Amino acid sequence: MDQTNDIAKLFSRFGASTDSYLEFETEFNYKDPPLTLDKPEAPLAPVLVAGPIPASEPRAPEQPSATALSSLLAEVALARQARVAGLEQEPASEEGTLAPAPVCRARIVALVSSRGGVGRTTLCAALASRLNQAGGRTLAIDLDPQNALHHHLKIEAGVTQIGSAGLQEKVWNDGWQQGLAEVRLLPYGVPGEDERCALERNLRDDRHWLARQLARMALDEQDVVILDTPGGRSVYLEQALDVADQVLVVTTADAASFITLDQMDRVLDAANARPAYSRTNYVVNQFDANREFSRDMLEVLKRRLGTQLLSVIARDERFGEALAYGHDPLAGVSAAREAIVLLSEQLKARFQVPRATGGHAA
């Protein structure tokens, strides 16, 4: 069957004839695209849409590691201790080491305490009257702004004072006032606010300020200098520790004094706070043996301090009365007097031993 007959039959089925069949030519060339295998589509990159940028976009803070934080805290703690104790490192000398403090030939005793109200100034005056050595002088320097030492040494208030600008600029051989038992006193005085600020600024800026003043006096080995300092940390305490052969920490047998011992230990043991030959001992003052609690606290202090506890001085109301009436507190006979006399003899025996060059002794 040819193609023409097939077409005619097809048209007849629809009720049409081949006469109505027309062929059209088109300009389009319809071709099937070649068959291609499906390939996995590559992931489309995300489209970034530009948006307004805030002026300061908040960022999540980075969390430091525990190790880094502890190191930073340790550095801050060390810096704070150096600031409070006044032990900031000094400029190096030409040899690259810290400039040494001028050495005073006299023996120097510093009475310190972690708080007030422990009888430190009273004990300072009593010891000063007993520390005189043959052929030497006993000099007392009041570094406490309360300016109370001259009362205990029976000296009228005078114009001389440690904080005056004139006295700071000249040798301290002038300005001493004669007191009880031939003790010579340089009082703190009552400086004006500007003078006090200038003095404390000098003490902060020059760590060896007191050492330089004492060295300029050309004191002898038989001379004794005793220093009274305010309770607690201060620039006056730092200056006293810088020159002291012997540091006496005055405390009492009570809880308030006991809880401050660690603080005082940190001050005394700070690097370069004291000369290598300096010794530290503790004195329990105003001890009341009639109170059971005081006796218990004394036992606690003995265990805590060990061989550093040098003396226990009983409470004696006559010391307060002597201050009121202008009497010598060591003139009578009492347990407190005997303890102070024994303590002074112990200190004078130490003065006969040459200064050591090693570490601090107990």
Automatic annotation (TrEMBL):
One of its GO terms (biological process) is negative regulation of cell division. It comes from the Bacteria. The keyword Nucleus does not apply. GO terms for cellular component: cytoplasmic side of plasma membrane; cytosol. InterPro entries: Cellulose_synthase_operon_BcsQ, P-loop_NTPase, ParA/MinD_ATPase. Pfam families: CBP_BcsQ. GO terms for molecular function: ATP binding; ATP hydrolysis activity. CDD domains: ParAB_family (cd02042). Keywords: ATP-binding, Nucleotide-binding. NCBIfam families: cellulose_yhjQ. This is Cellulose synthase operon protein YhjQ. It comes from Pseudomonas versuta.
